[in-house]
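Deadline looming. Please check this record:
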Amino acid sequence: LKPSCDQEKRFFEFCSKTIVKRKIQMRECGLGQFSAEVISLMISGDQISSLDLGKNNLGTAGLANLLRGLR
């Protein structure tokens, strides 16, 4: 995954720092559908032990993106 703009690059860097030791803690970060897609691509194939994305606005499409990454 290569970020295409400055904002995407900053989000990608944020995710890289936040996904530590198979745990994802991004509660109340203002995440949406696109964010879920990026996270899905980053965790694809990894075994995640904890995932906390509570109080974000992922929506149905964002949740579907996350589930694809967790398969």
Observations:
- The chain has a mean pLDDT of 84.
